[in-house]
Every structure is written in structure tokens, then in C-alpha cells.
Amino acid sequence: MNDMTPIKTTPKDWETDQEVRWCPGCGDYAILKAVQRTMPDIGGTPENTVFVSGIGCSSRFPYYMETYGFHTIHGRAPAVATGVKLANPDLDVWVISGDGDALSIGGNHTMHLLRRNLDCQFLLFNNEIYGLTKGQYSPTSREGTRSPSTPFGSVDRPATPCAFALGAGARFVARTYDVAKQTVDVLKAAHAHKGASFVEIFQNCIVYNADVFGGFTEKANQNHQLWLENGKPMLFAGGTKGITMDMKSLSLQVVDVVDGNWEAAGVIVHDVTNRAVAHMLVEMPFGAFPMALGVLYDDPRPTFDSAVIAQNEAVAAGKTPDLQKLISTGQTWTVDA
Amino acid sequence: MATAARIDATDTTALETSEAVVVRFAGDSGDGMQLTGGQFTLSSALAGNDFATFPDFPAEIRAPLGTLFGVSAFQINFGSTEIETAGDAPDVLIAMNPAALKTNVKDLKPGGLIIADSGEFTARNLAKAEYDANPLEDDSLGKWQLIQFNISQLTMDAVKPFGLGNKEALRCKNMWTLGLALWMFDRDRQPIIDWLNEKFAKNPVLANANIAALNAGHAYGETAEIGQPGTVAIPQRHVNAAPVEPGLYRTITGADAVAYGLVAGCQLAGVPMFFGGYPITPASSILHALSRLKEYGVTTFQAEDEIAAIASAIGASYAGQLGVTSSSGPGIALKTEAIGLAVMTELPLVIVNSQRGGPSTGLPTKTEQSDLYQAVYGRNGDTPLPVIAARSPSDVFDCAIEAVRIATQFMTPVILLTDGYIANAAEPWKVPDMSSYQPFPVTFLDHVPEGGFKPYGRDNKLARPWVKPGTPGLRHRIGGIEKQVDTGHINYSPENHQAMTDLRKNKVDGIANHIPDQDVCLGAAGGKLAMVGWGSTYGAVHQAVRRARAKGLDVSHIHIRHIWPMPNNLGELLHSFDQVIVPEMNTGQLKTVLRDQYLVDAKPLNKVSGQPFRIAEIEAAIEGALA
Ligand SMILES: Cc1ncc(C[n+]2csc(CCOP(=O)(O)OP(=O)(O)O)c2C)c(N)n1
Ligand code: SF4
Ligand SMILES: [Mg+2]
Fold it and tell me: What is this model's ipTM?
């Protein structure tokens, strides 16, 4: 392919010649495919795209993308990505991380990247387990998870990544799962959002945590998926159920929708800029409620990188850098010959 | 009011001349002693003296008033000859309260002069300083000369016309004291007056009050000299200008010098700088200084922690700017894993360590040289990287340029060691002519070279190419997993790991061919004894060797800037001496490295008290070795 005129690409152009080393059946494959299918649609150019990852099965990702890539150290991808973006804001930066990488060892960096609103796509592959280190429980593992390090079941409460992201001040929060056909659209929306776009992708670790998401991903259970669309009513189960707001308790409730008459049932319309409702959607306990998927929140604010560059330029404007002069100021005196 | 002093009446007709004088200003941390010291330093510079200073302040931000741990001191050594250290023992101690007297008087030379503010020697302050009796009134200060008067009251009297509140009026005490000090050393007041007018431009009342206090202190010296009743005669001395090369001079602290040096290095390399930092004493001042230099192509980023600071700098280096980070021991420890990543990915990076007393939080405001092992060896794996150590505030400028040169020319992280003493101390600096520095422009690879693009291909210095993301045709992936020779693909094979380990080592070892040979800064290149130092012990070692040589002793001074790799000739040089002594502010770290590298019987001379070496301590070691 001609590197100088990267006008139109195909998913194939985004594949590397590196042998992909995930376990057969791992959800990471589907995510890789979805990203490779997304790139042509967003008009990306491979040389202007950088994938930055931490450590974990998920963080192998950059090796398989025919772009620039940096497989960094455990938990630190957000910080490395911040340096990349500040040094060259023209680059399209994608951060790839796992639940352990982003929320355990790197939780601090994730929080600050979101708080600052660095312009990038932040994909968190949540398999609710430490895959690469052979299956210890993770900060997103459900209570009671039996793993090599918790043979009698974990006793601590898991973190909810999207709630964490909203709490950290993220301006774009979305959720999808590895094999969902909607993933490409979610990624496109994430890319269209200017700022830090946080996307949690439920990913099946077939070896250490198989089918933990089966409750809503399996064919028979897809009625438990609530796909959110801006301006559309919050309907699921083929339009037979919806989400309403109980005005007395100010909480969400599931209602039956009869004959498609969602208005009569009081089903609310999704407004991606409603932060309070976004908080409620990500906190809905699964079981009594469906799993909220799609773009949960999208309300852009100025980005960190643009603010840094703007201040650098404003402060430097009208000043001529003169190092000789700089080092010659302060408490000076002249010794005559 | 002034009381009688136990001092002989001085002959006031002829002004005594001294070659060098050491003065220490000590007071409560709220007394403005650092400011007084700084301005006295400026005055010394303008008088043409050579000088060195040493600020010593408490770790607490606002230590309780009058306490022993709240004492802040500033020492200056100024003279008409070459001055290398802030001086061993003060000739004059100005003590603004009992705590300042108590913590500092033991350092004063026997027969030295104490000037004390008797107004602060109240029962309460004496108790806070744990004095059972007022030392100004018993014989406990007998081996020194003591002059005491009520500086607090004299200051209040002087600033009365300006109608300041009690607290504000007393704040002018330091200017009164400075005025007196200026008189004592026959100095011009005008530059200080100009400075006060500028500093308080927005508040002329404060400016005038401070100037009045300054003038009153000065006048006190004068009237005391002619024996006004109720005053105490104070000795006055003159220190001649030091013979120095003509040119433009300025005072410089190590913190400023490292910031300027990094900017200069990046200009010579032709790359913008990205500085990722996280506040820590005594390194924060570098972040502060650089954050004001945006027009020089500097982006500063105060990260969420030390790890993010270096990780962001690595990201910036990957994207084509020079990443720089700085910290002190505890922060460098946190950065360790990321330094390994920079070694593995062979990206340029400068890491400045302003060393402080350790281990752990240690002594944040005190100086030490105990991070040499950390710099040279402190990483997992076989992870070599170059280490440079600066010897003085002005030397840091050149060392920072050298660090940038090596980082960008060899595609490697470089550690630059300074310390708390260098960061805070000020010394005169002959402003260099920037056009005399040889540029070392970076070339980014921007096209597919003949034979194809190899991300881990190498030039004749074994450096890999620096490629900016965004460059067509050169897409590649890097990371911390072992790289295949040339291609940079993941490779775990035994032969490849051996080959890459050797390459990384050989690249860093090879830097020795691109640095100057080790020089001998004083004495012959062989003989009975070499004193081998590094870092901020330079001044003390140098003066000690000079004094010993003046006594006819066969001793030389070698000071190592390139700690890793070491200059090619160093081994041979060390072996041309019968004895090698390594004075350092740690338990013998360079000594151990030298013994390991050159099988030389280097002996340690150690001091780990948070205080710099005294010249006399090193002199004694020289005399002991050659006795
Ligand atoms: C500093 C450090 N500590 C520990 C590890 C070991 N380690 C590698 S990956 C990982 C956890 C990965 O879990 P996650 O981020 O969820 O990624 P996954 O493998 O599940 O995709 C751990 C603990 C490491 N590489 N570095
Ligand atoms: S361990 Fe789990 S997450 Fe890792 S590659 Fe295998 S299936 Fe995927
Ligand atoms: Mg995981």
C-alpha cells in the first residue's frame, strides 16, 4: 500500500504479520477484528495511529495492529499515552488495558487520564480476571470468585469500571462486549468524541473465567441486554420491557411495555448528556435489571492536550527564545578586563 | 538596649583586610535568613569576591517559632582568592534568637565573633531553645567574642515612622542585620536598596521601612565605630576583589543551572523538551524553573505520581521530543521499572536525581551522595545506562548538556546526579558563550533506508534509529519484552537474549570512547596519593588537596564526572598512585565501584551526616595517609 496517500484503507491494511498469541476462543480476537473493522470507517491512517498498552493478555494488542505501537509496563499505559499525545497531538492515540492493568496497578493513572480528559480512546478489556498471570481474581471479579489466589472465594467487593470512569470525570463512557455486532459502532462513537473516551469491553477469558458474562451474552439471554441510543426510549427484551424513572424514589425501574406503547409505560428516553442517569445506568444491579450497553454518556469538554498546547502557545507568543539572554539575567555583574 | 560586650576595643583607624571570611546568618525560619544571605551574596559578588554559599533550612514548612528544629541558616564564604566551599567554620555568627545560637555556635571558630539579638533572649525563647540560663549573661560563650544588642528594638525604632504593625515591623529585622553586615564588610548599600524598591514596588511603605531598617543597621555600625555612648564597637573588615577572568558573571544555583542546561542541550540537539515531574524536595525547583520557559519549546507536565512523570516522558520521547524527568531518591526508586523500559526500548531520556539523605524519606532537606549504587546498578535485569555526576552549581549546566548529548546520540536513558547542596547552593558563574558549544543535532529516520527498515538496526555507535510515529513507511511496535536483534519483534530465544544483552552493554560501554579522558584537576598524574571524588564534594576535596600540597605533600585531586561508563584512562591513572582515597558522603559507594572495576586498593573516607565535608576533615585524611 502506498503510505503517502492513505485515503482509503480496508480492515486488512490494519493487520500485522505477527502471529496472534491469544488462546483459541479468547474474546480478544473478536475485539481485534472489531477494531480493525472500525479503522477504515473512521478514516484512520495507520502511520498516524498509535496503540499504547500496559501488560496483560489484552495488552498484547498493539503487536497485532499495523500502526505505531507501544507495549509498555503494567498499569502505566495511560501515563505513556499522555506523553505521546502531548508531544504530538496530531496522533490518534488508543490505550488498551485490562481490568487489572487499568484498575489495579494502574488505577491512579486511569483516574487522572480521565479527569484530565486526554484526547484518546481508552479500551478496557474486562474479563474479570488476571489472564496473563494464570487466573487470579481481579478488582472486577465478583464476590466469591474462586481462583488460585482465592481458593475459598474472594471476599472483596468488585469495582464497576464505568462507575469508576464517571466518578473520575470521564466525558464519554460506553460499554459493549467482545462479540457484539454493535462494538464497531461503539468504537466509532468513541473515536468521534473529542476527549478521553472510555469503553469497557466485556471479554470472555475462555481459560480462566469462561462465560462469566453468559447471563446476557448467550443467545438465550440476549433479552437482558439494554442497548442505549441517544434520543431513543430505553427498551429491551424485544421492546417488551423498558426502563422508567420512579419519581418518588428517584431511581430506575423496569416496566412492562404493552403493545409497544412505551410512552404509556413511562419509559424514559436516553439522553447521552445526562450524567446523573448515566450513573444510575451503570449501577443497575444485573439480574433485576438488564445490562446497559452502548454509549451511556457523551458530553464533550475541552481536552487536556488542547489546553496544554494553547497555554504553551499563549505564554510563548511574542517572546523570542534567546538562551544567551536567559542565562545572562538575574544577579549579574561584569568583571572588566 | 545594647549591653557591654566582652570584646577588646578595636583599633578603628585602619581597616583590616582579610583574605576570606565565613559568615553564617542564623535565625528562626520566619526571620528571613535565606533572603538576608542571598542579598549578602549579591553584595559579595558585586564587591568582586569569589564565594560559595550553603543554605541549611528546616524540613518543616512552618516550624513552631523559636524552636531548635525551626532554625534556618545561611552560610557564605567569600574571599579575594579562589573559594571552593561554603567554608568549614564560620568566623562570624549572626544569631537572631537563642535557638539559632544554640544550634550553630558549636561550629564557630574559636575566637570567632557572635552577634546576637539580645531582644530575643527572653525567658520563653530561652526555654524553647532548652537553655537553663541566658548564655549571653554567663561565661558559657567565653571562647568566642560576643556582641549583643537589641536588634528587635533597634529595628522597631527605625521603622516607627512607617506605622507598621508590630509583626510587620519586626519582619524588617533581617534588613537591619543585613545593613550591619554590609557595614562590617565595607559594602555598598545601593544595590540592596534598588532590590528592595523593586521587590516592594507595589507597597512603597514596606520598601521604605525595609530600607530604613537597612540604613539603621548600617548606621549602627558606623556610630558604634566612633564610640557613641550606648553602642558597642564592632570590628570592620575589608575583603578585596578576587582576581577572576573578565566577563559577565551571575550567581547561579544548581536548580537553575540544570534547567538552563537541559534547555541548552535540547537546543543543541534541535529537539523540543518534555518534562514530566512530581514535586519532591530538593528536585521540585527544576520543575518550577522549566515551567516558565515555554518559549524555549519546553512542555512541563506535573504528573499524578513519579511513575507517571517518567512514563509520560518516555511517551514523549517515543513521539519525538526529549523526555526528561527529575526527582530525588525515593522518587527515583519509584521510576525504576520505567527506566528499565527506556533501556529496553532504547529511547532517549534524561533522569535528574537531586540526591538527599536516605534511606526512605530520610533527610529531605539535607545533602548526601548515597544514590550512586541506585543510579549505576539499581534496576532489575542487566540494565546498563550512563550516569553523570555534577560537581557544583555551575558545573550542572555543562553536565545537563552532556546528559542530553549522550541520551540523544546513543538512544539511551541517562541519569544525572546532583544533590541537595548543589541544588540550593549559589556560586558565581561566568556566563558561557552559547556559540562556543558544538551542536549535536538529532536526525530522525524519516524514510525507509536501503536494505529495509530495522527498528532495532544500529549505527556505528550501536544506537538504534529514532523514528517519530506519524512517519509513513516506518510503522513498528516497541515494548518491554525482549526484542529480536534488528527487527525488534518479540523474541525469547536464548541466543537472541544473549545477543541483545551484549548489545545493550556494549552500546553503553562504548560511550567511554565518546567522552573526555579523566583529567587530574590538581597535582601530578601519578604519585603518592590520589584523592578521588565525585559530585558536590569537589570544593572541599580541592581545597584540602591545595592546602596539603602547599605544605609539600604529594597528593593529587581527581574528580570523576562520568560515573558510568568511566573514562577509558581512569584505571591506568588510578594505578599510577601508591594510595587512593575516595571521600564521599555515603558509606563508600564509588570506592566499591572503583575497586570492582580496576582492582585498585581504594580506601574510603565517609561522612553521612547530612552535612557537606569540611576541608579540614579531608586535609586530616591526607595528612594521615602520608604521615
Ligand atoms: C510490575 C508488575 N507486576 C506484576 C506483573 C504481572 N502481571 C502481568 S499481567 C498481570 C495482570 C493482568 O490482568 P489484566 O490487566 O486484567 O489483563 P488480562 O491478562 O486479563 O488481559 C499481572 C499481575 C507485571 N507484569 N508487572
Ligand atoms: S488467558 Fe484468557 S484472556 Fe488470556 S489469552 Fe487466554 S483466554 Fe484470552
Ligand atoms: Mg483481565
Answer: 0.97
